[in-house]
Design brief:
Layout: H1 2-27, E1 34-37, H2 50-53, E2 57-61, E3 65-66, E4 72-78, E5 83-91, E6 97-105, H3 107-122, H4 129-156, H5 159-188, E7 198-201, E8 205-208, E9 220-224, H6 230-235, E10 237-240, E11 249-257, E12 268-274
Parallel strand pairs: 8-12
Antiparallel strand pairs: 1-2, 2-3, 4-5, 5-6, 7-9, 10-11, 11-12
Protein name: DUF5011 domain-containing protein
Keywords: Membrane, Transmembrane, Transmembrane helix
InterPro entries: Ig-like_fold
Length: about 280
Amino acid sequence: MEIKKLAIGIGIVDAVLLVVCLFLYLGKDRTPPVISFGDSTAVYEDGMDESLLLQEVTPMDDRDGDVSNSLMVEKVAGTNGKEVIVTFVALDQSNNVGKASKVFAVASGSAAAPDGDEMQTDDGNGMSQDETESGAVMGDDSAEDNSSEDGGAADNRDAKDTQQDGNAGDENGGKENAGDENREAGDGNEEQSGPAPVLVMNSDEIVTKKGTAPNWNTVIETMSDDKDDYNTLYNNLKLEGHVDLSRPGEYPVTLYTVDSDGNRSETRELVVKVE
């Protein structure tokens, strides 16, 4: 009888503990903070204060509210030299991690644009007015010299000159062939110094929301190298093509990576779909 009571007591204690554990499990916060972006005018520069990138970035948690005190920059990945993708992370009190990425313009790229516009407005062929006038003057002098030389050559032309012209043509042809060989040799020297990084995609399309940079991790199946780790290769990702994150649509791009030795992976074609 006492054994039966003891067994019942143990069963009741186990049931209570099970209910408590279930309550704690169901009541645990598993929702990460949501990071949203405002209208920030920050421009990325090497060595800049990361606090400037955090402006107009707000992480909100459904239970803890604003968790901006835990907001930080996780990594910066370059694209085409004119833009960078900055990944932000934030934690709530339950250590749930929220991540989001945003594209920032590079300061040097934005500063170079006005100079290029001014060069195009000077003249249709990219030359200034002074350079165009100088070229015209040189062209007139050359025309006069050519006309006088043509007159003298017409009076003195004979079979010997014709033979010399033929020899000169053969000599020039030999020089051109030698130049082609040198160019081919130069191209051969541009071969990579070691094994190329491996970049394998699991999809040829990546979907992102309007105003949010694509998370390339979702479409990269394998990215490895004999020396560099995944993070290094990810930071060296290069993007060829234009993606307008402010306008929904489909944008074809080319993606590849470069290791620390300058070896380049095979290019991968994919479509960035902005919704």
